[in-house]
Amino acid sequence: MIGGRHMSGGTGVIEIAAGVRSGAVTAVSVVEEHLDRIAAGDGEIHAFNTVVRERALAAAAAVDRAVADGRDPGPLAGVPVAVKDNMCTRGIPTTCSSRILEGWRPPYDATVVERLEAAGAVIVGKTNLDEFAMGSSTENSAFGPTRNPVDTTRVPGGSSGGSAAAVAAGFTPLSFGSDTGGSIRQPAALCGVVGVKPTYGAVSRYGLVAFASSLDQIGPLSRTVAESALAYDVIAGHDPRDSTSIDRVLAPVTARLDDGVDGLRVGIIAELSSQDIEGFEPAVVERSHQAADALASAGAKVEEVSIHSTIAGLSAYYMIAPAEASSNLARYDGVRYGLRRAGPNTAAMMRATRTTGFGDEVKRRIMLGTYALSAGYYDAFYGKAQRVRTIMIREFDRVYEDFDVLLTPTSPCVAFPFGAKADPITMYYNDVCTIPCNLTGHPAMSIPFGTGADDLPVGVQIMAPMLGEEDMFRAAAVVERAAIGSEGADR
Fold first, then answer.
1. pLDDT at residue 411, as a whole number
2. To 10 degrees, what angle do helices 310-328 and 360-373 make?
3. Which of 8, 84, 126, 446 is catalytic?
């Protein structure tokens, strides 16, 4: 630790996998090294809710046996991976950082977990999050907050704060989160790592504990664009167990990662990239324009574009997401699994269980969503929000006729101190740049690009149309190279 900052280090995803597959290193030694880092440093960071040391070492030994037998263990051979604690893992506690799921061990694995292990990855633990993924700072966890490894006096973002912190601290080179309104991209920006929200339906949601089913999507966090591209290729693809899964073969994004951006049409969204927007830090906006300049220098055609519906996105989201949460969280009743508090009758038992088991933010959103869906208010609130969503989808579709990708800041600010945004409305504003892609279902990702206030990381967001991951990743690779070149020049 240097001046309150934990510096990430170690070998990356691609190097680890190559070394294990060639026999140059063993998966067991790699996993042991990362488990030791977690044991030494996570007491302060609290990236993890659960660490599965013995299970991880057994899985690593199986990878080594495959190599010794001449079998290819997969593209993520021996890579230590952390998964957000709202993804089902057979026999391992899955809590969603909520007391309501106390003692629950799923009888099955999420599809993403299955695909990771089939690719040779080794799950080392489950990461902390805002309870049921409802938050932008990981302060809402029932098990305490996660600290930002870049500056431990500040939040890591949320709700996938534990996953972002695990990568930033060097505990694992790769992690996975879920993104309902920016919950992968915003913590990636605040922790200075890469975070990807794929197209809705490109990655299976089977085994992801639902927050808002029409918005949730799983994606990777890593230190580099190439690592996230490899991870995306592993987890993406049709899953018949997910009714929203896209039933088509998806092109691997790694194949075009180095194609450059010559002729690519890039739009800077004016409503999210102006120095005049209240609540946006000037340095954050400036970094997004510098990233646009880097793309232009690499041959892209860059123009400013106006998308008026983005202004209403935040309001629409905070009607739709709580409404879906109200429906999804009704299953936590103290009857079938998880926490149960005694009561004189069934209604009293459910009331006592939910009062004890849910935290304040979850209760707030359940009540908001239930109200929005109630008789007499449905059309005025939920129905209107869905109409705004439709308008936004149509407007983005029109814009993508003229542009291949769009560019904005990821977050309006850098990582903020704990307790600095206790007011819910102020906290919700952190999602203003990321929410549009959840409402439209389009892919987006955050790439570290320099620093802002107090020398803290800034993330730049690249957005693309439905199944536009190939263009999104190759633009991100150029932005990443420009950021690295700028850092080298500064030295």
1. 98
2. 100
3. 84
Neighbours of 12 (CB within 10 A): 16
The string of pLDDT tens digits covering residues 356-389 is 999 999 999 999 999 999 988 999 999 999 999 9
Whole-angstrom distance, CA of residue 377 vs CA of residue 425:
21
Residue 7: what pLDDT? Answer: 45
| Spans in the chain with pLDDT lower than 70 | 1-10, 486-491
Kindly state the tokens that stand for 277.
């927007």
337, burial (CB in 10 Å: exposed 0-12, middle 13-18, buried 19+): middle
Q: How far apart are the first and last CA of the chain?
A: 21
308-353 per-position pLDDT tens digit = 999 899 999 999 999 999 999 999 999 988 999 999 999 999 999 9
- Name beta bridge partners: 151: 148
Q: At residue 177, what are phi and psi to the nearest 5 degrees?
A: -130, 180
Catalytic residue among 97, 136, 137, 183: 183
Q: Residues 21-40, buried b or exposed e (16+ Cβ, 10 A)?
A: beeebbbbebbbebbebbee
- Please confirm, yes or no, whether 183 is among the known catalytic residues: yes
pLDDT tens digit string along 111-154? 999 999 999 999 999 999 999 999 999 999 999 999 999 999 99
Please report the pLDDT score of residue 1 as a whole number. Answer: 31
Under DSSP, the state recorded for 272 is G
Superfamily of domain 13-270+401-490: Amidase signature (AS) domain (3.90.1300.10)
Task: Let me know if 243 is a catalytic residue.
Answer: no
Whether 126 and 364 have beta carbons less than 8 Å apart is answered as: no
Contact, 182 vs 433, CB < 8 A?
yes
Cis peptide upstream of residue 159 (ω within 30 degrees of 0): yes
Helices (H), 236-309: 282-297
CB 183 within 8 A of CB 158: yes
**What is the DSSP secondary-structure string of 128-170?**
--SGGG--SSS---TT-PPPBTTBTTB---SSSHHHHHHHHTT
98 catalytic? Reply is: no
What is the pTM for the complete model shown?
Answer: 0.96
Of 98, 159, 163, 288, which residue is the catalytic one? Answer: 159
What pLDDT sits at residue 4? Answer: 47
Domain ranges of the chain: 13-270+401-490
Q: Within its chain, how far is the Cα of 366 from the centroid?
A: 22
Q: Which residue has the tokens 């092109």?
A: 251
